[in-house]
Each structure stands twice: as structure tokens, then as C-alpha cells.
Design goal:
By secondary structure, this protein is an all-alpha fold. Helices cover 71% and strands 0% of the residues.
């Protein structure tokens, strides 16, 4: 069972996005899916901060610029490695014999 302290991030990372993404109209709009994904990422950062933050802080201290710089720094390193690896690979399976047929039916 999820404790009361962990229920908030679990709802924000899974339950709420799951319910929102049940709508097929929303999933057809990439811009709206982007916002749901961004919400999930923000909730993940909140969850990690909620989980490990008290270990590194003294009582009464607030968030500092370093907290955000670390997330941006590690995220920037990850994104640069991701895009460097993505550049050398095909995004669509061009050699797939069923690819043209799949695209003719809306990609599904």
C-alpha cells in the first residue's frame, strides 16, 4: 500500500495522466500529449525532491539555485547524448516491408 506521503506524486505521475490519456481525441493532438508528458516529468522531479530532499537539507532551508542547476545540467547531458545517438539512426523503419501499408492507414 502506498503511504499517505507518497500518494500525491503517485497520483501526479500515473493516475491523473492515465485518466487524461484515456481520451482518444487528446492523444491525436501531439501538442496536448506534449503537455501531459511535461506534467509527468515535472511530477517526477517533485517526487525525487520530496523523497531525497530532506536528507540533504537542514531544517528551515529552502530550495536554492543549485537544485535547479543540477536538474538542468544532468538533463542537458542526457539530451545531448540522446540527440547525438539519434542522429545516426533512422527514426522510421524504412526497410520494413509493411511500412508503406501502415502509413497508408494512418500509421496504426
Amino acid at each position: 500500500m502506498v503511504s499517505d506521503q507518497r500518494r500525491g506524486p503517485a497520483v501526479g505521475q500515473f493516475a491523473l495522466p492515465f485518466l487524461i490519456l484515456l481520451s482518444s481525441n487528446l492523444k491525436r493532438n501531439p501538442n496536448q500529449v506534449k503537455w501531459v508528458a511535461l506534467f509527468i516529468l515535472i511530477m517526477r522531479v517533485v517526487d525525487i525532491t520530496w523523497t531525497i530532499g530532506p536528507v540533504f537539507r537542514h531544517e528551515g532551508s529552502a530550495l536554492s539555485w543549485v537544485d535547479f542547476a543540477v536538474v538542468l545540467g544532468i538533463g542537458g547531458i542526457w539530451l545531448s547524448l540522446f540527440f547525438r545517438n539519434l542522429a545516426g539512426r533512422a527514426i522510421v523503419p524504412a526497410q520494413d516491408p509493411y511500412f508503406k501499408e501502415a502509413m497508408a492507414h494512418g500509421g496504426h
